[in-house]
Amino acid sequence: MESIEIILKNDAVGNPIELDNMSLSTTKSVREILDALINIAEYEKDLNLKIGLKKGSAAHRLIGNSPDLEVVYNKFVEVAENKPSRDNHYVNQLNIIYKNFQTISNYDIFYEKKSHKENIKPLFLKKFKNIRNKEDIENKFRIEFLRGTLKLNGGENPNFHITSNKISYTIQCSKTEAQKINPFLYNEVYISAWVKETKDKNIYYLCDIYSGASIEQYDDFKFFFATLKNKTGTEPFHFISNKLEEFYNNKELIKANNFIKIFLTKNSLVTYLRTILVISKAFKEDEVLKSTLLEVEQLLSAKIGKVY
Question: Could you tell me the pTM of the whole model?
């Protein structure tokens, strides 16, 4: 089990903190820090988190398995670095912890992961700032799955036309993609496309083509992404991670790769991209997944800075 551990050593006047002999102000600090950790654990109800206290010491521990605790640690970092993706619930709870640190003269905070203990005290050097309500942050990630007849292909700016349910869609693509889809001309084709909403119309950009053995993925992915858009809080993390773990456990790396490719758009949320990288760490050098995971890392870096 991994942990984030807060160790309170000395009170405001330098006396060692002993649980059976504390001043009133120190007792309140110990309680409020513990309450803040409990609030984080309750907020992340979909993560497998526990609270621990070391016997006989003022050491608070937030405990969990990887990657669950890594989700919490990354949110600590986002708050400390004032990232646009930071969560106000974490800002509020970490500010409670920060406030109480001002009444403690000596303390440490460690993030213990796989026998490596990292001192994360530098994250708590100043008060944290709230961000606008997360509901004000628009989710522009949109993907549509279209099954229809390929009618036209080509043009000075490469695109093709597909008729699905008597509606004609123009799909923007690269020259290479236009050549790849050309054999399907006047035949039924299965595709996914990213959607950019503008004031006047939606613009569609080719994401992937499903043919042969990959056609079965079309319905699977269509259902998954229709469900994903209704997920809130930490639900997207679990929904995406469970899907990837299913592929990895079944050694279906090509399916996993095709699944991840759908997220390779600048409109992907930070939550989506980080989840993919956390769950896929063991496959960073896999020949099937390596280049796709590198693209995910580059997209995430463009949004939040250095990832690793």
Answer: 0.62
